[in-house]
Fold this sequence. Notes:
The protein has about 475 residues and is α/β, with parallel strands linked by helices.
Amino acid sequence: xxxxKLTLLAVFLSIGICFADESESAASHVAxxxxxxxxxxxxxxxxxxxxxxxxxxxPVNDNKSFSEQIRAENTILEIHxxxxxxxxxxxxxxxxxxxxxxxxxxxxxxxxxxxxxxxxNISRGxxxxxxxxxxxxIRGLGQMPLFNVIRNAExxxxxxxxxxxxxxxxxxxxxxxxxxxxxxxxxxxxxxxGGLVFSASRSTIKNSSFDGNIxxxxxxxxxxxxxxxxxxxxxxxxxxxxxxxxxHARAIRRGGIGMATFSxxxxxxxxxxxxxxxxxxxxxxxGVAAGLGDYGVNTRGFNVFGGPTINRHFALAFGxxxxxxxxxxxxxxxxxxxxxxxxxxxxxxLRTQKRFDEDIRFNKTERLVPIYVRPILYIGRGLFVPxxxxxxxxxxxxxSKTERYPSFYFSPAVGFETLNVGFSFGYRMWTAEYEVFTxxxxxxxxxxxxxxxxxxxxxxRFSHSF
Length: 466
């Protein structure tokens, strides 16, 4: 009993000591405040601190759909599922939402299910934001690229695989934009193809890759490449291309990267199998020729030609044409289609001028049908390809009296070709037949006979290859 009382007494004493220590500590703290700090006066303003919203600290959109995030005017928009992605594509392509000042964050891998492809209107949509892939993958995209046009945009850390596209995969046009760590494994077809973007201007493509089959169709000699079709004033660094590139022999640039002008291109690797297509040359051309000299004949007409392409520099075509004489120059005088009335007027004029004992030649040729072989030399490759060719053969000429006679035909030309369209200037020689008359002092007409002279002319022609 005595021990219990002693124990109880000890407990009360310890409690009292603790209260005394806390009171002393509080008192010393208050004293220090009075000694070292100035008390707040009634007139001193009090600054209120605004509470930071949850979205300003870190966007938490786990339970919000993409549409709800748009309505909430979030700066960072997250894609958590296929529905969010389809809504994002709809807003970009159909509603023309540029997402300027926004960041789109892909938060999961996506598989595009059959029948749930996004709705596209490829003629619309300029993306001006940031698309952050976070290293995730999108599988099953088809036909149209991820964006139409990207401008002042950034696409990064994105992977696309097991997909197929027409013409390109990420964007048709890139302007002042950056692709960083964008990797695509897909098949792409088109008249001309760019593996990541079709055309780039003042853009940067770095640390990215394309792996797949690229097939350019329709005999196009416009550029095709594993990264882009064409780029200007851009920076292309540390990228890789692999797979198969099949395109026109004159369309493959920089070993398979693409055609770059005024750009910095370095540290890129191409491991693609290059298949140079050598499609036949098939074309149609129209042109006009202006006669040279006193006996030159002006013509207009068309040629049809076709033949094999030997390599990217040389082709051999065979062709024929139909040319109509539209005016004839005789002794410096222009005449159209000759008739008895025109000849009579000419001699009346000569009698008035008293031009006697002077041979007068009238053109008799109305039609010219050349049959020729045309070797074609392509110098270099690019958007504008210089070409040199020459038509060598014979021509069947028909006179005004339905008489036919053979003629030598030679027509060299120089020009250029772009997008399968050619423009050429050249020189043409063929034999024209003339009917020769003279005027006697007594005013009688005297027919000497027919005469063949070499006709010289220069021409311009426009051609299109199919």
